[in-house]
Known about the structure:
The protein is α+β, with helices and mostly antiparallel strands. Helices cover about 50% and strands about 15% of the residues. The chain contains eleven helices and five strands. Helix 1 (about 5-20) packs across helix 2 (about 30-45) and helix 2 (about 30-45) runs antiparallel to helix 7 (about 150-175).
Amino acid sequence: MTANRPAGRWVRALSTIAQQEGPDNGADNVAKSLSRICRAAAHDLGGSGAGVTVLSEQGARGFAAASDETAYLLEELQFTLGEGPCIDAYETRRPVLVPDLTADTAMRRWPVYAPAVREHDINAVFALPLQVGALHLGALDLFRRQTGPLTKDAFDQALTFAEIALTVVLDGQGTATGRTLPIGFDQSPGFRAEVAQAQGMIMVQLGVTIEEALIRLRAHAYAEGRPLHHVAQDVVDRKLRFDQTQK
């Protein structure tokens, strides 16, 4: 009976994923597949939304997918502010389970992210790392309006969705050749090539380190209330220069 539980969870998760509506862009479109996984996870686990973020070996944001626009903004917010459950899950390689974002422990952990997320009526968040062995690629985040911990069944099922997401990412990377992105990555608003390019341009404009350039970019995005990649695109398109705007 115990041995059949993992297989049963995969069948249940895959059945829920198959029921999710969305444009049919082919089974090898990683971006669309991850979005469907996020919608299925939110539906099956009683969440208001879910997101997946894939990071590079250096922890830089590479790609994100989400169940809906609000969930995508919550994923984006972590990398605008530089703190959040996905980042912690990736760095610690452990699940990050926060059943109450109003608690003092959550506020101390994420002094900027926690209140920002609560403005979107999200009061609990759970992040499951995408990892197998020594390989870790990111995390799946589940957002909920109601406070309270995940049940054991929900936690186990969340791990299953994370495993499926990891499999989709690895399969996509396996079909990519050389520096070619997995199919769908470059079609997603989560693709972050423009952020890295903007960092380099700001570094030159201000004569600062690449790390400081990212801090300046994040600060500007947060102050303007705009997604990080939108500000980065303005820098790349030369609509925004930091040596002319920063004091």
